[in-house]
Amino acid sequence: MIFFLIRLIIWLAGLAVVGYFILGYFGYQPNWRYYEESRASCQEQLRDCQKNLLKGGLDGAKETCNFQCVDPKLLIHKEEK
């Protein structure tokens, strides 16, 4: 069992490295600072949702809360040359 987990971790790490180089070859790069840049706006959305939850209950929160803070299109972007 432990051998299987170690082998799986090695395969996943290898695929991540190969994927990183393939992205670079086609002119894309991961945005490593995405979470630092979007943290403030996500925290603000969370504060608003907390206020709505306290005021309107669960029904109010379902209408106004959007917990989709991660935009996959911004995680990998085309390199600027």
Q: Strands, helices and their partners?
A:
Layout (H helix, E strand, L loop, with lengths): L1 H24 L2 E3 L3 H31 L7 H4 E3 L3
Antiparallel strand pairs: 1-2
**Helix segment tally:** 3
Task: Determine the mean pLDDT.
Answer: 82
Strands ordered across the widest β-sheet: 1-2
Strand percentage lies at: 5-15%
The largest sheet is: 2 strands, antiparallel
Total strands: the figure is 2
Order of helices and strands: HEHHE
Q: For the record, give the distance between the C-alpha atoms at the N and C termini, rounded to a whole number.
A: 47 Å
Q: Indicate the radius of gyration in whole angstroms.
A: 19 Å
Note down, in words, how this protein is organized:
This protein folds into two domains: 28 residues; 46 residues, no CATH class. 73% of the residues lie in helices and 7% in strands. Strands 1-2 form a two-stranded antiparallel ribbon. By secondary structure, the chain is mainly α. It has three helices and two strands, in the order H-E-H-H-E.
List keywords for this structure.
3 helices, mainly alpha, two-stranded antiparallel ribbon, 73% helix, 81 residues
Structure in a nutshell:
The protein has 81 residues and is mainly alpha-helical. It folds into two domains: 1-28; 31-76, no CATH class.
